[in-house]
């Protein structure tokens, strides 16, 4: 289904206290809500993805896949700050009549979730059968399950964490340094910071994959190469690919939103916050993940009351959550069929 828009006509207040009118949220839906209204699958997307989950999570979501529109009412909403349909830095600031750019309000994971709760209310969704997400999407799903525990029945958290780590924040800050080193970032134009964004994406890729991934996929075929190495051209290609579809301002703000993730803020700590999750929860980690190490998912597994755990052994690193869809399908299917009853069920090494 094509992109839809919801406009919240009341005042939306960010966690920072900033208030705006007319918040817009872009979203996609697939399938129909059944008569019992108990077939909702809500997907929270990652950093630079969009609300068309059938496009970027093929193999898990599609007409012939586990999550299909015949059986489920699937919803995916675009996050705040992203240029794919929701309120973002390239929108017009009503005060100046110009795009917000760096005057855009800083926002948090909690702000993203609050916006998506408003959309759920608008769609008449009182209960979400399955809420799932990976990476920044998993951060959203976890925050939602804590702030609105009665609405979430089953929760699937993939390659994510309870609070963003100093390691992850350092990666994000390094990317922001690359963006701000590009003087055009301050020029007030839609393509400002493009060269910096390209460099930032190159940095990010190193955390999404790992040594083994590059060793296999970018290895030179001959020993005589002196320049234009496969690994170098790959970094340039992937950097430019993001520049062609995104913008530096959205990327800058979204990286800060990821840094803000801490479910323990204002809740007497992370452990106390995780104890508030009422949903049956499946936590999936990727053994080779450098950005969200598997220890972070094991921590969630140990502290969420009704949790199961699965580990995927993928050589793709963090990106494995987008690629290993066959393994994820097996794991999620097994979890849904399992009666947890408050017990911890270990699904380790299914894949």
TrEMBL record:
Classification via InterPro entries: AB_hydrolase_1 (IPR000073), AB_hydrolase_fold (IPR029058), HAT_MetX-like (IPR008220)
Species for this entry: Mucilaginibacter glaciei
Catalysed conversion reaction: L-homoserine + acetyl-CoA = O-acetyl-L-homoserine + CoA
Superkingdom to which the source organism belongs: Bacteria
GO annotations of cellular component type: cytoplasm
Subcellular location(s) of the protein: Cytoplasm
Subunit and partners: Homodimer.
UniProt enzyme class: transferase
Pfam families (alphabetical): Abhydrolase_1 (PF00561)
Binding site for substrate: 201, 319
EC number annotated for this UniProt entry: 2.3.1.31
Active site per the UniProt annotation: 135 (nucleophile), 289, 318
Keywords, alphabetical: Acyltransferase, Amino-acid biosynthesis, Cytoplasm, Methionine biosynthesis, Transferase
Pathway(s) per entry: Amino-acid biosynthesis; L-methionine biosynthesis via de novo pathway; O-acetyl-L-homoserine from L-homoserine: step 1/1
Ranges of residues in domain AB hydrolase-1: 40-322
Single Gene Ontology BP annotation: homoserine metabolic process
MF (Gene Ontology): homoserine O-acetyltransferase activity
Protein name: Homoserine O-acetyltransferase
């Amino acid at each position: 289904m094509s992109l839809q828009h919801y406009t919240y006509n009341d005042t939306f207040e960010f966690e920072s206290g900033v208030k705006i009118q007319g918040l817009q949220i872009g979203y996609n839906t697939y399938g129909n809500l059944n008569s019992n209204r108990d077939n909702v699958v809500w997907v929270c997307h990652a950093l630079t993805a969009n609300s068309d989950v059938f496009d970027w999570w093929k193999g898990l979501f599609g007409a012939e896949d586990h999550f299909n529109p015949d059986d489920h009412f699937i919803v995916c909403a675009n996050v705040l700050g992203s240029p794919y349909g929701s309120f973002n830095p390239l929108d017009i600031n009503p005060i100046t009549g110009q795009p917000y750019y760096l005057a855009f309000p800083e926002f948090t994971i909690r702000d993203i979730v609050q916006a998506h709760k408003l959309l759920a209310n608008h769609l008449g969704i009182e209960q979400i059968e399955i809420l799932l997400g990976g990476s920044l999407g998993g951060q959203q799903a976890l925050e939602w399950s804590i702030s609105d525990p009665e609405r979430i029945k089953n929760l699937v958290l993939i390659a994510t964490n309870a609070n963003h780590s100093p390691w992850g924040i350092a990666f994000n800050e390094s990317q922001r340094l690359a963006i701000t080193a590009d003087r055009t970032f301050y020029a007030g134009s839609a393509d400002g910071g493009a060269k910096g964004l390209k460099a930032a994406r190159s940095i990010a890729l190193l955390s999404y994959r790992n040594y083994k991934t590059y060793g296999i996929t970018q290895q030179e075929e001959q020993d005589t190469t002196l320049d234009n190495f496969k690994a170098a051209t790959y970094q340039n290609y992937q950097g430019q690919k993001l520049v062609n579809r995104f913008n530096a301002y959205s990327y800058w703000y979204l990286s800060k939103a990821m840094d803000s993730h801490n479910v323990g803020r204002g809740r007497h700590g992370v452990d106390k916050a995780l104890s508030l999750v009422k949903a049956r929860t499946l936590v999936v980690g990727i053994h080779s993940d450098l950005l969200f190490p598997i220890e972070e998912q094991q921590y969630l597994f140990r502290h969420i009351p009704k949790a199961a755990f699965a580990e995927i052994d993928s050589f793709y690193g963090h990106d494995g959550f987008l690629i290993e869809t066959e393994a994820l399908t097996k794991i999620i299917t097994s979890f849904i069929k399992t009666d947890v009853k408050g017990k911890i069920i270990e699904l380790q090494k299914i894949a």
